Amino acid sequence: MTTLFQRIRRVFFTGLFVCLPLIITVLVFKFAFNTIDSFLGPMVSGLLSDAGFPIEKGSQIPGLGIITTIVLILLIGIITRNYIGKKLWDLGERLFASIPGISLVYTAVKQVLDTFKAGNLQNFSKVVMIEYPRKGIYCLAFITGSTEGEISNRLDEDLINIFLPTTPNPTSGFFLVIPRSNVVELDMTVEEGIKMIVSGGIVTPTHKVDIKGSNAKETT
User: Fold this and answer.
1) Which of 42, 55, 113, 185 is 20 to 30 Å from the Cα of 105, by its Cα?
2) pLDDT tens across 16-36, in order?
């Protein structure tokens, strides 16, 4: 009886952990939808009613807040694509970021989002593992390029530039110049490396060796 119960429990938790990402995603989007719609929906409905549209005063059209948000985001995207619009947006952003308390949250969120921009991720060519801060302790880092110029000329070694990010904010970290022989290159993608660092190791891409001995990767 105990063995049967343990099997049922294992199967249940297996199903639970498989479903959790989907459940959390649905709940997050549902919360965002309800929050935005309940905030902008009545406001826009009231404006349309005052403008003469056949909408009953105080009523709310489901989904109107979301549609309004999408339209506003598109307008902001159009405006900020030109020089004057971008300057005005930068000015407003600096004013917003100067508000005590709010600036801490806003700056942190903006830095994390900036890290995930395609242009920024392309600056990282490879995920590597290095021993830091001492021998026997390993950290994930990113190769940013080969070491050149004065540093390369003064040190007669094959060196590479490494960016060692911090957790959970990968936009801050350390710039290191280390011998290429001290670097262990990994198969995971830059995006997978970023996710692993941000999550503190909770999100980990799995890795296996196939029958022929070549490395094959499965991402969970």
Assistant:
1) 42
2) 777 877 888 888 888 878 887
